[in-house]
Amino acid sequence: MREKKKTISRKIEKFVTDYDVPLLRLLYYTPWLRWGLLCMVLILVTLPLALVKVWTVTPVDFNPAVKISLLDKLQSWSLRRAAYKAMDAGRFDDAVHAWHSSIANDPGNQIYQREYFQFLINEDLQKSKSRQAVQNGWWYLKLNQTNQSSLERVTDVFDFYQLHEINQWFLSQREEKLTPEMEVKYLKSAFHMGNISGFRRGIERLDPVRMEAEPELKLYHAAYMSIWGSPESAMSFVELLRSHFKHPTLGSLAHTLNCEISVARGETDSFKQSMDFMIARGVDRLVHHLQYWTMLVEQGAKDQAIEQFRRYNLPPEQALDVVRFADFAVMIGEKDLAIQYLKTYATDFGYYEPIWIAYANILIDQRDWQSLNNLAVQARRHPLASGTLEGYTYYMEGRAALGEQKVELAARMMKKVARVEYEIVSVGFYIAQELGTLGFESEALSILRGCSDEMKEQKAYWERVFPLASNQGDSELFLEAARQLYRLEPDNDIYRNNYAALLLSHRQESDTAVRLTWEQLNVSSISRLITPSKYQAALINHALALALNHRFDEAVEHLKQVPAESLDPDFVSGYHLAWFEVAMRKQDYDVARSHGLLVQRDQLLPADREWFETTWDRFLVEN
Fold first, then answer.
1. 200-215 burial by CB neighbour count: b if 16+ within 10 A, else e?
2. Same fold across 350-455 and 493-622
């Protein structure tokens, strides 16, 4: 082996000697230069490779996939070390900045993110830092598809920084599958976000032993009973809560909950006392100031509220604060201040769709179509923009086009709006309402169909579906909307009458139709002198229901009670249709013909019109 190396060395030396090239001689006889040149070549070759983003750091099937380079990975590691050094030195602002930069360079590194969340909890940072906690927490949950362990970890951070709106959003979706620790966080967030029915359900699920072991929960329960408990016991719970004002560990919470009590009870002085306590300790939040200013406005001290509002200059701590601030500014006529506030902080909280909605609504109200277009582009480019937000940006562009009289462009954009799948159903419902108002009923109904699973228990949803389904001629959905409204509120006369009318129109469930129309007839007969049109409609519907059950003589008797000469114009076609149907079923064809000729088809319900046209055409052929 040594002989072979010597032979190679002699050949290289002979080559350098025979070919008298200065650079080769210099490299051969100067080892440090040779190695230096080799290192430079390696750097030139590897540097581009280190800069190319080829390393996928997000889970399989994650959309969009995130790729980083080797340099990004090294920078992330270095910044993490810098964060720990800053933590050890007590430089927490520098530590937070280093952590954020580290995560930004390697956004798929869940180990670093978990260490960062633990840092946020271990170090009681200024509340302004909660903004970054939200953004990174949201991303971490997205990476983990909001699994149980990741949700527990992140909701701990959100609870620590009192980000109740976000905890309520995530935990309410798993209300029936919460661990005992998550149940406590759910109860707190439900109370602060006004989800009182959820709070009540949570309290009922909670183990009494757990309640006794959690002093904070006892205060929340006292606050709940002070507002929504029995009037006889309310004051005792108020006193129980306020007796904790000087408690060394529960004092801040007692004052925070007292603010909610004071708003409900209209006690401005008590509210001011608690707010002063929180201001002195630096734990006040924008929501407390907004509540106080609103109370001042309601009590006629609007000028004082506006003066304090204009002086407030602290940054928002959570996304909902931005919306609340803007809404209050609009309420008191400070729209320019609202726009400036939204413009400043919309990007910081760009993952939160209501911020963009509030911003867009002001621009729409001011008919500033160019700014609305620009806002749509800005929102869509946000790195944390959801599919739901993307759909809303299309709506903004369509609304701007409509405002500029670009009808074809508006129609195209609204079709794009309807094709989006809205994972945040409340935003989808809001957009559908706006589309329906603007005349894009088909697109609105398309979005509403996608919201049915999550909103089927909400009356507002079916109230919106009902007229749209009717206008679009979707008779099956029209009937389903009427059925659901009656199910949700069976004592509502309008819902009962609509459901009965549509059952009759579809010739379905005749027994149910008879029962409903009989109930409606009894209700309307009591007030027929005040509202004769309701009584007329009830008579016609009940006659039809009787006819469907082959009770023809009774049907005729009820139709004879209808005052044909003073009939409400809206019921004329329905009246003649009822006579036509009863006569056809009795095979009284002369009566059927006389009434059938008076039916105005465009005034009938879709299913009635279809039945009448088919029956009338067959009747003319056979008679």
1. ebbbeebeeeebeebe
2. yes
H or E stretch covering 623: none
What would the mean pLDDT of 461-482 be, rounded to a whole number?
91
Rg (CA), the chain: 35
Q: Where are the domains of the chain?
A: 2-51, 285-344, 350-455, 493-622
Our measurement of the distance from residue 400's CA atom to the centroid of its chain's CA atoms, rounded to an integer in Å, reads 23
Tokens of 369: 């179509």
CA atoms in the 13 A half-sphere facing the CB of 500 = 29
Architecture of the 493-622 domain: Alpha Horseshoe (1.25)
CA nearest to 342, candidates 317, 366, 325, 318: 325
pLDDT, tens digit, for every residue of 321-360?
899 999 999 999 999 999 999 999 998 888 889 999 999 9
CB burial of residue 443 (10 Å; 0-12, 13-18, 19+):
buried
Give tens-digit pLDDT for 101-160.
Answer: 888 888 778 888 888 888 877 776 555 555 566 667 766 766 666 667 777 888 888 888
- Answer for the pair 214, 207: CB distance below 8 angstroms, yes or no: no
Burial of 325 (0-12, 13-18, 19+ CB in 10 A): buried
The CATH code that applies to domain 350-455 is 1.25.40
Q: Where are the alpha helices (DSSP H) in 451-509?
A: 452-455, 459-471, 475-488, 493-506
Sign, CA torsion 493/496/502/507: negative
Task: Give dist(CA 555, CA 558) in Å, integer.
Answer: 5
CB atoms within 10 A of CB 466: 21
DSSP string, 226-240: HHHS-HHHHHHHHHH
pLDDT band at 32 (very low <50, low <70, confident <90, very high): low
Instruction: Please state the separation of Cα 270 from the chain's center in Å.
Output: 34
pLDDT of 370 reads 95
